[in-house]
User: Fold this.
Amino acid sequence: MQPVYIIGTGQTAVAEHWERTAGDLAREAFMAALGNIAPERVQALYVANALGSALQVQGQMGAAIATALGLQGIEASTIDAAGASGGVALRHAYLAVASGAYDLVAVVGVEKVTDVLDARLEAGLALAGDADWEGVHGATLTAQWAMLMRRYMHQYGYDAVDFAPFPVNAHANGAANPKALYRFATSVEKVRAAGMVADPLSLLDSSTVADGAAAVLVASAGLARELNAPLIRIAGSAVATDTLALHQRPDPPWLGAAARSAANALSSAGVGTGDVQAIELTDPHGIAATLGLEACGFAERGAGVQLAREGAIGVGGTAPLATGGGCKARGDTVGANGVFQIVELVRQLRGEAGKAQVANARVALAQCLGGIGATAATHILVAE
Amino acid sequence: MQPVYIIGTGQTAVAEHWERTAGDLAREAFMAALGNIAPERVQALYVANALGSALQVQGQMGAAIATALGLQGIEASTIDAAGASGGVALRHAYLAVASGAYDLVAVVGVEKVTDVLDARLEAGLALAGDADWEGVHGATLTAQWAMLMRRYMHQYGYDAVDFAPFPVNAHANGAANPKALYRFATSVEKVRAAGMVADPLSLLDSSTVADGAAAVLVASAGLARELNAPLIRIAGSAVATDTLALHQRPDPPWLGAAARSAANALSSAGVGTGDVQAIELTDPHGIAATLGLEACGFAERGAGVQLAREGAIGVGGTAPLATGGGCKARGDTVGANGVFQIVELVRQLRGEAGKAQVANARVALAQCLGGIGATAATHILVAE
Assistant:
């Protein structure tokens, strides 16, 4: 397999973009990723999008976004794995370049969710769960994370307040990210005083879905050198799956697909969790971040919450998490999240993260989940 | 890039499978494709599916089908490009094996469309068009093909009856295919006497959407040799796009994406249209088959209809088309069509097509379209 590099990134602000189309958002992110590179050098486009069919009445988002970017004619397709779409699309781009078929593939994650009423949006988000066992009973993803949080608290003896450092960290970092949906700090007290969304998950421990697009350019070594791009290598790439329905898993608080994809990605990159200096996870709630940290191997089972309580997930800690604000503060763009994660990690590896910069970041891990981890995509990035 | 082979195929009957789930259909096709191969040797699964979100309330069809096949844990994802999904999923599998990442990838196309009422099904099918310019005005794909047929008749001086040999050929072949939805012959007279669906398209010149699943196993040369599988090589693979909206194309009866993907696939395979002995196209109507034949280079512009009138598209002709019945007689399984096409061509290249067998078939071409060709995927298969 040929080595594969990320040579450009771009993102829109995450917001309620009522006056802009999905194509318009995708174009802003793509143009930023291109920089000085001529658009006609892009040979293929993989679009990460989860809710185009449900909310945008569009089943060929690949072709639609190709046209919006002025790339019509090009190979383009749509990858849908709910919240894991961004990571899975990057995986397909990685394979296309690693095969030698292409020198330059664009991955664009785009989601446009705020121009429908809540009931329709909830129905769209429920596509990430099991329709027969979960959706039909009204068990939203938030409700399921809440149940996992209760189980975890019971199993390991924590209180809800123990999870509050996750949103506090995410908001602290989001406050420094001009593209974030929420650019204000919060506190443990505020998180627990906020209204309940699904007890024990409060409003301030729950992400908000919003519109946005992110883009990355995936290139061969030859092209990366020719363009004199900073060399950020995709050193590991893996996707794994689990059952959709939570009740079908023998041990629900263990995210098996997340664990498997992380182990495969770390192993193929030849690094361990101790080498990783910046982390992006699917973290709409503290419990999701906790289970993700444990599945990836950053903490033993039952000890993920400790990392947050001890400050290890902060920018100056040993496991800096959500340095761009994560799902909670940057905003939850569903199928685009996985691409936003890569944009943030490249920012870290290039030393361009300003107030949220991790000192000397050389190795980073991104993991995104579809639903409650039925699909998990993990990538390891290394600055060369 | 590593050479890539198809070493197993399977398909369900195309029918109204009211009592079976998508997972159940996928399993039947997958088990047939496996034959004696142990399922745990399959390393990744790419699911071609267009209407899971719209009709099956399922946004992670990749993970869902992986579980249904007993493969949970495996890398799996969903590829959605409307009617081109099957070919695009095969393209991703081809790249994954060509890269050396995997030795064995399964592609499963599955669609379950008959257990909803017509209005919802029509809304699902309309996802393949442009929502703002076409869907909102009620311009179905059938209506758009009808407009293209009118334009073509005007431009080249044909009558509607001139297109009837396409469904007649498809039904003649479908009658010999035990998996086909319609296993009866028809005639030019019957096609034109049938009720109008969208003038000048009659009921007997229009495909019927139905349920079904098809599976192919895509493997490295090493594995193909180890398993002693008949060597059918994917010699060419290409995807291209065009605008979604028909009115945005400078020359609507010219399917640009179809032409581009066919030219790229033929060129990378090192063969010409004269070498191809079996053809599968997206052929829900005679006009679609006509424009596909012209875009691929089997006929000059305006001369595609001649091939059918002269009998060239028959099993004994120079350009045998739809030997398994095509969309018209095998049945239109939307996102799964592209995988059914490959199953049929492998049957031809292995000499297993019975009454519909083309003598000494060595090279075959499959092309599937999303909507009116906004996405087009073309593959060239060669028997070694």
Summary: The first strand of chain A starts at residue 4 and ends at 11.
